[in-house]
Amino acid sequence: MFVRWIGALGLALPLAACFSYVPAELESIAPGEMVRARVSPQGAARLEEALGDDNRLLEGEVLEKDDGGLLLSVPVSTRQWGFQMETLKQNVRVSQGEIVEVERKRFDRLKTWGSVGVSTAAVTVLAWRVLGGKSGGETAGKPPPVEDVLIPLLSIRFP
Questions:
Q1: Once rounded to an integer, what is the mean pLDDT over residues 63-72?
Q2: CA geometry: angle at 137 spanning 135 and 138, to 5°?
Q3: Euclidean distance between CA atoms 96 and 69, whole angstroms
């Protein structure tokens, strides 16, 4: 049961992300920020050709912002070269009229420290359980006397 609990905890910890999204006004968004934008159905239909799907929720980096809307760099796919993963991105312009809602990505200290605390507690409990018992039993019989263990390094014979 203990192993199942640790396994469930190990699966749940990656879900506790260190970032969250907070609602923001479109006017307060600046280039370089990471955002999540919900677009209208018409906007999703227009962007479907560029992005490959009709997802109404776009996450990405703001490259430009003007009165007309936002230019976003949105991840669309990943490519693997050996052990290296590369995220492929597409730049898309979303007009102000197509944006229903925009949220700013921010670092969440509470979630981060909570995740660190739970991870530390799990590792401590696991180490305590593994190392807390007897560590391999007892030796068979008494150890040999010290004289039997000594190895002479230098011996001098007298006639």
A1: 91
A2: 125
A3: 4
Give the predicted TM-score (pTM) of the model. 0.61
> Quick one: average pLDDT of 18-30?
89
Confidence check: pLDDT of 17 > 70: no
Report the pLDDT value the prediction gives residue 1, as an integer from 0 to 100.
54
CA distances from 128 to 117, 118, 121, 122, 124 (A): 16, 15, 10, 10, 6
Displacement of CA 88 from its chain's centroid (Å): 19
Strand 57-66 relative to strand 34-39: parallel, antiparallel, unpaired?
Answer: antiparallel
Burial 8-37 (b: 16+ CB within 10 A, else e): eeeeeeeeeeeeeeeebeeeebeeeebbbb
3-state secondary structure the chain: CHHHHHHHHHHHHHHCCCEEEEEECHHHCCCCCEEEEEECHHHHHHHHHHHCCCCCEEEEEEEEEECCEEEEEEEEEEEEECCEEEEEEEEEEEEHHHEEEEEEEEECHHHHHHHHHHHHHHHHHHHHHHHCCCCCCCCCCCCCCHHHHCCCCCCCCCC
Strand partners of residue 80:
85
Q: How many residues does the chain have?
A: 159
